[in-house]
């Protein structure tokens, strides 16, 4: 494939989670095995990308022949129109000690920050990183109001200056400086709305090159500049973020082929079908028509998305692959150590593993739990370990660049997340023969772990069951070994060759799809017949008329869903072309799924390649079936105030007999007799 592939990120670093690592691994494989032209695009301002690139290559995260193109490096003229670096940065590092002559210094407890006072008045605040490099300096006026912040790069040079509005404390201007201190870009803000209202881009000599109304327009300008250089180019987002997914949705360029990959669940709590949608995921799925390919890691997630948003030929499934690893004879497995590897965030429920371990050590006193990763919850984990007096058994170990080594020496690993799409940690653990204990949640654990075969699945949020599973693997080495042997087969199932082949098929399909995109307005539905066909089936027939001629037949099905909550059913429809823009449909559906109390609305689900419509079924002039009692529920087809067909389901109680009626009348009469008051 000669077309280049551009992976779009807001930012990238050598310290990242599984989603980013999966993208980088894919890029490396496609480069090595198919010689694909791969580029990483980043939109954020980070003056230290030279260091980030070198670290990612050193850690074998980034292929040396895959360039990282950053928008701000282009805007600062560090790279030319061919996106080649034209200025080398060999400047020495400038040190900025906290102390300054004429100022009194105060260190802020438990931070790397310092306050500087002059005559008792706060004038500056400096914050440093863990290596002693100055991150930024804040400047205050005589009323201790923040007026300016200066951001520094790793070499100690000012690279960004933010001016603040005194009344609102919001930014009013941002200036971006190159390595020589020259301003090449300026953002202007409305402090009251916090919105950027103008972007000015300058040449090396200070000449204004262009003005943009907002930052989004600037980003689109840069992406279009890249697309202009290629007859066809694949642009793909993997991490679901507003500043990448929404930007790609706005890209309107004839050369661009759009691909979206879902690395995470699209659902909020309780992470099951019908749950509220995550904001960015929901927006992308509602606009899925605009992508030439949408890729999921599991068939379970794809089916749930198709069920809620309608099927499309542009939906694909590509599970992650198991990377090849070298044997580690130097690593000895510890039968009494289990590990967690991942981010330290609330969603991962690492505290559940810690709490479960309080029960584990009572039965297995020599058991140990190692927690590897990074994130905001680390202090909470440390406190919980102290509160439960588990310091001798549970240890927070920090970041590891050798997850394979960590898994190789563990008896088993644990992943008590509330939701996972297709976690790399499960693959890495299984491929070295280390079984995984995980909560049985959507979608990854359910799809990746065969309970009792190559790992253990436990009821979500059941700490007691989690503890029992951990004790089981600590105390039953034969079971642990059997699970590990099956887990080692993961590389055979999720091979790199399969993975590369499937991604190439996705890209080739997307390229073809980009030449056949469908833009069809919602058709008009007409119903000719709707009647009972047996005790609990309804026959329906009608037609769809499109506003333009169609070259290919749509895929139609009957879709019925409850109005107040997302409970739904699909039924097949047979179709026949009547003319260039009209198709008839007919089918039958059982009413048994709709005996739950509620109002059930009827639609035709219509799919044509990348596009899908749910078309409400109107009553028109058709006679509706009579109401009927099914399973003690009265089902009544009716026309809504908008003229559409729905089915009302209400529980039906049996009519009271004469004796019951007489008893009710008696009670009503007695209730209405006033009480006799004593004299």
TrEMBL record:
Keyword Flavoprotein assigned: no
Listed Pfam families: Glycos_transf_1
Native organism: Planifilum fimeticola
InterPro entries per the UniProt record, alphabetical: Glyco_trans_1
Domain Glycosyl transferase family: 332-489
Name recorded for this polypeptide: Poly(Glycerol-phosphate) alpha-glucosyltransferase
GO molecular function: glycosyltransferase activity
Top-level taxon in the UniProt lineage: Bacteria
Entry keyword set: Transferase
């Amino acid at each position: 494939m000669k077309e280049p592939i551009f992976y779009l990120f807001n930012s990238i670093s050598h310290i990242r989670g599984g989603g980013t690592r999966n993208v980088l691994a894919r890029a490396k494989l496609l480069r090595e095995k198919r010689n694909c032209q791969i580029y990483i695009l980043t939109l954020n301002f980070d003056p230290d990308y030279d260091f980030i690139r070198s670290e990612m290559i050193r850690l074998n995260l980034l292929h040396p022949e895959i360039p990282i193109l950053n928008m701000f490096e282009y805007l600062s003229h560090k790279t030319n129109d061919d996106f080649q670096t034209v200025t080398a940065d060999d400047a020495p590092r400038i040190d900025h000690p906290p102390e300054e002559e004429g100022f009194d210094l105060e260190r802020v407890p438990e931070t790397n920050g310092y306050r500087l006072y002059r005559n008792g008045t706060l004038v500056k605040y400096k914050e440093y990183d863990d290596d002693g490099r100055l991150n930024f300096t804040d400047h205050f006026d005589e009323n201790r109001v923040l007026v300016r912040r200066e951001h520094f790069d790793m070499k100690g040079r000012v690279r960004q200056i933010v001016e603040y509005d005194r009344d609102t404390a919001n930014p009013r201007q941002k200036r971006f400086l190159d390595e020589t201190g020259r301003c090449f870009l300026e953002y202007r803000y409305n402090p009251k709305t916090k919105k950027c209202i103008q972007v000015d881009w300058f040449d090396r000599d200070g000449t204004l090159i262009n003005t943009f109304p907002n930052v989004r327009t600037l980003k689109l300008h840069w992406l279009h500049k890249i697309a202009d250089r290629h007859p066809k180019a694949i642009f793909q987002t993997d991490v679901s973020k507003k500043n990448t997914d929404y930007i790609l949705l706005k890209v309107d360029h004839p050369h661009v082929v759009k691909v979206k990959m879902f690395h995470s669940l699209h659902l909020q709590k309780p992470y099951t079908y019908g749950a509220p949608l995550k904001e960015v995921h929901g927006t992308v799925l509602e606009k899925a028509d605009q992508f030439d390919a949408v890729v999921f890691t599991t068939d379970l997630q794809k089916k749930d998305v198709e069920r809620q948003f309608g099927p499309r030929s542009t939906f694909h499934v590509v599970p992650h692959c198991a990377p090849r690893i070298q044997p580690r004879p130097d690593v000895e497995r510890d039968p009494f150590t289990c590990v967690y590897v991942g981010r330290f965030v609330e969603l991962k429920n690492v505290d559940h593993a810690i709490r479960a371990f309080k029960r584990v050590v009572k039965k297995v006193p020599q058991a140990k739990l190692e927690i590897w990763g990074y994130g905001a919850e680390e202090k909470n984990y440390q406190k919980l370990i102290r509160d439960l007096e588990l310091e001798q058994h549970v240890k927070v170990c920090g970041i590891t660049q050798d997850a394979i080594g960590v898994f190789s020496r563990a008896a088993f690993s644990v992943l008590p997340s509330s939701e996972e799409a297709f976690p790399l940690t499960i693959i890495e653990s299984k491929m070295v023969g280390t079984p995984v204990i995980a909560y049985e949640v959507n979608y990854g654990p359910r799809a990746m772990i065969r309970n009792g075969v190559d790992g253990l699945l436990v009821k979500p949020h059941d700490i007691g069951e989690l503890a029992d599973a951990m004790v089981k693997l600590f105390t039953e080495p034969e079971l642990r070994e059997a699970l590990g042997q099956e887990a080692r087969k993961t590389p055979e199932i999720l091979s790199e060759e399969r993975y590369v082949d499937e991604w190439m098929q996705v890209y080739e399909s997307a390229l073809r799809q980009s030449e056949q995109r469908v833009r069809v307005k919602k058709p008009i539905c007409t119903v000719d017949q709707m009647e009972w066909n047996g005790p609990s089936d309804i026959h329906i027939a009608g037609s769809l008329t499109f506003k333009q001629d169609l070259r290919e037949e749509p895929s139609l099905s009957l879709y019925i869903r409850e109005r107040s909550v997302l409970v739904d059913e699909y039924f097949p429809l047979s179709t026949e072309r009547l003319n260039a823009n009209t198709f008839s449909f007919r089918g039958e559906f059982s009413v048994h799924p709709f005996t739950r109390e509620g109002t059930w609305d009827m639609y035709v689900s219509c799919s044509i390649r990348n596009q899908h419509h749910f078309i409400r079924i109107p009553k028109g002039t058709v006679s509706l079936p009579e109401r009927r009692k099914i399973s003690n529920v009265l089902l009544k087809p009716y026309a809504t105030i908008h003229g559409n067909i729905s089915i009302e389901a209400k529980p039906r109680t049996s009519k009271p007999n004469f004796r019951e009626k007489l008893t009710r009348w008696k009670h009503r009469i007695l209730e209405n007799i006033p009480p006799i008051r004593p004299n």
